[in-house]
Amino acid sequence: MSADRGQRLTLFSRYQLSDQYDLAAEFRPMLAHLCRDYAVQHVSFRNTRPPDNVPDGCTLTELPLSVDRKRPGDVIGKALLLYALLPLAAIRVRRFKPDLIFVTEILPLYALVLKWLTGRRVATAYGDWHVHNFLGAKWWVKPFLRLIEALERVEARHVDGLFCRAGAAGERLQSWGVDGDRIRVVFDAPDLSAFYPQNQQALRAHCGFTPDDVVLLYHGVMHQGKGLDQLLDYTADCYRAHPGIGLIMVGSGPEQESLRARAVALQIAHRVHFTGWLGTVEEVGHYCNAADICIAMRTGAESNQHIIPGALLHSMACRKVVIGPDLPGLREVIVPGENGYLFAPDNGPAFVSLIQDLIARRADWPRVADRAEHDIRERFSVEAAATAYADALHHFAGEEK
Question: Which listed residue, of 53, 166, 237, 331, carries a Cα 20 to 30 Å from 306's Cα?
């Protein structure tokens, strides 16, 4: 089929197209693939950074306002404002007359409301429980979170397609009564032009660490669901036993300032380097390579059970030793002792014991790291993810391929 046969697709997101390219390595090739088959409309907040390489056949439709990913408060605020702007978005989508709307956001009800307002088929992403991650530790929000979960079940049963980034998420949807034919699991794919093995000893030294130190690293958004306060506590325990332990914290988020204060209170601030917001994914790759052990940190909360953190795949692509909590999503990737290691979630002694064991077996790190990089190249390619998304969107649009 080709775009001149009238097939039309709308992609809907808060984020402008250039941000989409940064957030998901597979987005650019997926869009190019789709534009060969569809006329594509990309709907988002205003494009403050003109995107490069917009494929022929892709129309950019802008909503009022813009969103600044460097400012967590702006990200959250604009996510809420977008609910109010859905009627305007629906008007612009209806004018385009798509066969399918793909809502790339993992936030409740965007997809269902657009389906109601436009009368079109809609597919959406399902995975991270962002609302839980930002608010889940606050006792007073539990009734609100239960309401959100109920609404997500309603939405999942009524949209035409759901994308998951882990098999565990697909299993959860089927347990809610969602037909397996409306579910597709597509793994994230790291951008191998940004995440690959590099010599970053100079950057490591800039962070205050020597070649003989054991440097841990976390990268990603800093919110409550990650358990980063626990990570600092665990690192402090490791440091007391091994003064060569250090930690690099890459990224930003609503918890950043409280985490900095916690590092001071734990008397390890001199061994914890906070980078703040980094402007490019390439810089994130640099810091991954400056560390020894990269941590896909999450709590054991229900909201973290069915995801595969992108940070895990990034670090594996950099040929690093990776560790993470023993949760269903992470078990889909990590084979303990082969390509990484798992520790009991929310368990400080288990974390410290694992780090001590790894320090004692430092000579084995290259074998495990090599296998991690090999698995990324075998299982998590950008090309495979882009093709899987495109094929699934054809299916969800009700087409035969």
Answer: 237
Q: What is the rounded end-to-end Cα distance, in angstroms, of the chain?
A: 9
Cα(316)–Cα(374) distance, integer angstroms: 9
Tell me the CB-side half-sphere exposure of residue 149, using CA atoms within 13 A: 13
As beta bridge partners, residue 216 has: 247, 293
Q: Are 28 and 58 in contact (CB under 8 A)?
A: no
List alpha helices for 242-323, DSSP H. Answer: 256-265, 281-290, 310-317
In percent, how much of the chain has pLDDT > 70?
93
Q: Position 93: which residue type?
A: V
Question: What CA–CA distance (Å, rounded) separates 130 from 80?
Answer: 13
With contact defined as beta carbons under 8 Å apart, do 207 and 248 qualify?
A: yes
8 A C-beta contact, residue 277 and residue 253: no
Strand partners, 274: 249
Structure token pair of residue 306: 């069915």
For 206-238, the DSSP string reads HTT--TTSEEEEEES---GGG-HHHHHHHHHHH
Q: How far apart (Å, rounded) are the C-alpha atoms in residues 40 and 127? A: 24
Q: Tokens standing for 328?
A: 């269903």
Distance CA 329, CA 346 (A): 16
Give the residue, 285 or 172, on which the prediction is more confident.
Answer: 285
DSSP state of 186: -
Task: Give the position of tokens 């130190």.
Answer: 213
Tokens (6 digits) for 68? 């600044």
Closest to 108 in 3D by CA, of 67, 149, 63, 167: 149
Average pLDDT, the chain: 90
- From the CA atom positions of the chain, what is the Rg in Å? 21
Name the residue among 263, 267, 277, 254 with its Cα closest to residue 230: 263
Report DSSP state, residue 50. Answer: P
Q: Write out the two tokens for 7.
A: 């097939």
Query: Which pairing describes strands 293-295 and 214-219: parallel, antiparallel, or unpaired?
Result: parallel
> How many whole angstroms separate alpha carbon 17 and alpha carbon 31?
10
Q: What is the pLDDT of residues 126-139, one digit of tens each?
A: 865 555 555 555 56
Determine the Cα–Cα distance for residues 315 and 142; give it in Å rounded to an integer. Answer: 34
Pairing of strands 245-250, 272-276: parallel
pLDDT at 148 over 80: no
- Amino acid code (one letter) for 201: Q
Distance CA 246, CA 103 (A): 40
